[in-house]
Amino acid sequence: MNHRWLEWAKQIQAIAQTGLAYTKDVYDRERFEELRQMSVDILAHYTETDPEKIKLTFASDTGYATPKVDIRGVVFQDGKLLLVREKHDGVWALPGGWADIGLSPSEVAVKEIKEESGFDAKPVRLLAVLDKKFHGHPPEPYHVYKLFILCEITGGSAETGIETSGVGFFGEDELPVLSVERNTEAQLRTMFEFMRDPDKSVILD
Questions:
Q1: How do strand 80-86 and strand 68-77 relate by DSSP bridges?
Q2: Residue 43's CB: how many other CB atoms inside 10 A?
Q3: How would you classify the pairing of strands 119-131 and 144-156?
Q4: Residue 10: CA atoms inside 13 Å, Cβ hemisphere, count?
Q5: Residue ranges of the Nudix hydrolase domain (predicted)?
Q6: Using only C-alpha atoms, what is the Rg of the chain?
Q7: Treating both helix axes as pointing N-terminal to C-terminal, what angle do 4-22 and 26-47 enclose, rounded to 10 degrees?
Q8: Of 91, 173, 77, 170, residue with least CA distance to 119
């Protein structure tokens, strides 16, 4: 499916947000506000979502427009990969989420693993930095970079969290239904490649 309208809306929103952050001219500010409203109208038209909700989630940021950062912790045990079942959609993903202000990428990975799976972990190495637009994820209103960080379990035990309803380890040939919004089957198979080849180079989009 062609989602050019979504890319246009995202670009218009980014231009408007950056313009509003730097303009000193009252007339330019009005034009940038009109552009931002245009991006909201595009999303509202094609998604049938309440424009006010779109404004809050998509067109409310300030400052220079930058991509969001999603961080995933990659943990292996006995040749199997740690996944958690998301309450939001009932399917499985690597533990992780949006980067937090004040925490490093490694700290976020460790925090998310603990909160979503119950395991204590330590970071080992960066495996991949991916641009979500290249990897078959469903369309969304944000431009997202995904960081995959290999971690090792140091303690704790399997325990669900506020956002998860299941915790498990899965072999490459027994992957459950995945949350493709968060991670794709191809990405998880790439993580198994790193398990088999610890010297595999970091993947960088």
A1: antiparallel
A2: 23
A3: antiparallel
A4: 15
A5: 66-192
A6: 19
A7: 160
A8: 77
Match 């909201």 to its residue by tokens.
40
H helices within 91-178, ranges in order? 105-117
Residue found by looking up tokens 């499916």 in the block: 1
Block residue for tokens 């637009």: 133
CATH number, span 68-204: 3.90.79.10
CA distance 122 to 160: 19
How far is the C-alpha of 56 from the C-alpha of 46, rounded, in Å? 17
Instruction: Give the helix/strand (H/E) hosting 138.
Output: none
Sorted by where each begins, the domain ranges of the chain are: 3-59, 68-204
Quote the tokens at residue 6. 């979504």
Q: What is the pTM of this model?
A: 0.79
Per-residue pLDDT of the chain (205 residues; tens, 9 = 90+): 467 888 888 888 888 888 888 888 898 989 998 998 998 888 888 888 888 877 767 777 778 888 999 999 999 999 999 999 999 899 999 999 999 989 999 999 999 999 999 999 999 999 999 999 999 888 788 889 999 999 999 999 999 999 999 999 999 999 999 999 999 999 999 999 999 999 999 999 9
Q: Are 94 and 83 in contact (CB under 8 A)?
A: yes
Note whether 164 and 87 are within 8 A (CB): yes
